[in-house]
Amino acid sequence: MPVPILLVTGFLGAGKTTVVNHLLAHAEGRRIAAVVNDFGAINIDAELIAGASDGVVSLSNGCICCSLEGDLLRTLAALLRRDPRPEFIVIETSGIADPSDIVRNLMDPLIWREAPLETVLCVVDATTTAETLNDALLRSQLRTADVVAFSKVDLVNAAGRAQLRDAVRALRPAAVVVDALHGEVPAALLFPADVDRVPAPREIRPQRPAADRFETLSWTSERPVSLPRLQQAIGRLAPKLARAKGLFETVEQPGRLMVFQLAGGRATLAPGGALAPEVPRARIVFIAEIGVLSIAEIDRIMQECIEAG
Question: Which residues form the CobW C-terminal domain (predicted)?
Fold first, then answer.
């Protein structure tokens, strides 16, 4: 029986992981396999989603989560060999990925027969301005979408949401547009009720020349960080960042991890569970436009966070 694929796309910090988390937490008896394709040497997203850093993690509701290591088609083939087989596969793309390239890979006849692409969901930060939709990558993500979900709708007024909705509909008239507060997207829009139905193949747009735009810069520490100093450091780095995320132990709360996220200029902190043995006390990924930030600058600024440890 074919296993339908849901492809989740969206720009850096749009809220893709929140949507996937919600899908896994509210599977309602569906066996869902989530594949997380993070941008960067440290796969923080896999840890946020499943509470583990590597491999395949079984969840209590029958779902599983795995990190994408290497070739996507090999990862899908491994999932399809699992017993019991998943009923649905969710692939979360990197925020800098052009989904049209991934769709092209999923049109491989061998994959399509076993795991056809059912739905493409594009998550859009509701605070995004209509002018921002001129970004070539974001436009490509939207033009591939069957469903567009506005995240962070509580941070923008009705007039702002309406303006963005009109701009999205002008760009992708065929898409269903929904609000997704806290990552809540109606499952009926994402998963087919008839799992025996095989969707029609998609039109594949011509492949565009690859253009590197972003780079990842990873920082780790074997010592805990001072939270007040970390907040100061992030404040200095934030104007140059497109995105940042990480896990770290603080001097103030030894033995406990904090989850840090920076997206759209907004930083958040949340509890992250117990510190695993034999891992760095701090691991943070910084994503910036190429050439805007250097490892030397990050090391110099972040070093100030641990001198008080």
Answer: 214-306
Residue 68 confidence (pLDDT) above 70 = no
Among the listed residues 109, 93, 86, the one whose alpha carbon sits nearest the alpha carbon of residue 144: 93
Question: Model confidence over 225-254: pLDDT tens digits?
Answer: 999 999 999 999 988 888 888 889 999 988
- Say whether both 98 and 158 belong to one domain: yes
Using the CB atoms, write b or e for 123-150: b if 16+ within 10 Å: bbbbbbeeeebeeebbebbbbbbbbbbb
Is 139 in the same domain as 276? no
Single-letter code of the amino acid located at 62:
G
Q: Comparing 17 with 209, which gets the higher pLDDT?
A: 17
Helix (H, G, I), strand (E, B) or coil at 67: strand
Higher pLDDT, 67 or 293: 293
CA distance 289 to 168: 25
Nearest CA to 47 among 220, 283, 302, 250?
A: 283
CATH of the domain at 74: 3.40.50.300
Distances from the Cα of 201 to the Cαs of 48, 102, 104, 107, in angstroms?
Answer: 33, 14, 10, 7
Q: Which residue has the tokens 């747009």?
A: 205
Q: Please state, in angstroms and rounded to a whole number, the distance separating the CA atoms of residues 221 and 304.
A: 12
Give the residue from 178, 210, 255, 248 showing the smallest Cα distance to 96: 210
Q: What pLDDT does residue 27 have?
A: 86
Identify the three-state secondary structure at position 93. coil
Q: 157 lies in a domain?
A: yes
- Domain ranges, residue 145: 5-190
Residues 227 and 167 in one domain: no
